[in-house]
Amino acid sequence: MFDQLLLAIDASDHSQRAQTAAMDLAKLAGAKVRVLHVRDGASSGRGGPKWQEGHDEASSLVDAAVAALQAVGIEASG
């Protein structure tokens, strides 16, 4: 079926549901999961983009997702 899955996350509820689905699919297929954070920016005029989640928060989200996947026996990295 699948050998590898790519899980793109942010701090949204949709992301949590995607993580659960990736976890279920990875268990079923015996797949590895690669986690990355998608940074969504909103323009703030002359100041440039204003990021919804900072670098530290993004790193924490990825680390937490990787840890959750590994806790149930899934090979994951981020």
Q: What's the mean pLDDT score?
A: 88
Number of E-state strands: 5
Q: Report the order of strands and helices.
A: EHEEEHE
Helix run count: 2
Strand content: 25-35%
Q: Measured on Cα atoms, how large is the radius of gyration?
A: 14 Å
Termini distance? 22 Å
| Share in helix | 40-55%
Largest sheet: 3 strands, parallel
Strand order of the largest sheet: 1-2-5
What overall form do the CA principal axes indicate? elongated
Structural class: alpha/beta
Poorly predicted ranges: none
Spell out the key features of this protein:
alpha/beta; 78 residues; two-stranded antiparallel sheet; 3-stranded parallel beta sheet; single chain; 2 helices
What would you note in describing this structure?
With 78 residues, this protein is an alpha/beta fold. 44% of the residues lie in helices and 26% in strands. The protein has 2 helices and 5 strands. It has helices at residues 13-29, 55-71, and strands at 4-9, 32-37, 41-43, 49-51, 76-77. Strands 1-2-5 form a 3-stranded parallel sheet. It is elongated. The two termini are 22 Å apart. 14% of the residues are buried. The model has no long low-confidence stretch (mean pLDDT 88).
